[in-house]
Predict the structure of Hypoxanthine phosphoribosyltransferase.
Amino acid sequence: MHNDIGSIVLTEEQIEAACARLGKQLTEDYNGKLPLCVGILKGSVLFMTDLIKHIDTHVEIDFMDVSSYHGGTESTGEVKILKDLGTSVEDRDVIIIEDILETGTTLNSIIDLLKYRKANSIEIVTLLDKPSRRKVDIEAKYVGEKIPDDFVVGYGLDYQEKYRNLPYIGLLKEEVYMK
């Protein structure tokens, strides 16, 4: 699988440094509160696990499985909730943890749902931000790295459910997904 990677976009060390920096910011911003960290499955699992180790205040965690890719390389724009939260968000400070923010359509739908459910506040933390792909007006308050419009995999990000277990984030060779 490593041979399918054209170049490394973020090394393991860079990812760890981003997690530490973001965890410190979240600790300062949520100290004395009990935020609900909502990981968006499946891509955010590795990032969320490493990130919350660096948050030095109490947090609760839950997950949503939301899909807009359906196996391809482009978001379809059709958002499906495959697994909903098991925790009420009413009057809670919610931190959505995402692997990558691209078009924003998925996160926009999630935010609308959480607002409808009366969350007290909603913020986004994302490891990767691709602002050039944005289709809706949405920004993450906490961003690990801004990246160009390339197709990346690894550290939770996949192509056809493969490559999630790479310990780094790499640029997938075009010949792999253009077959």
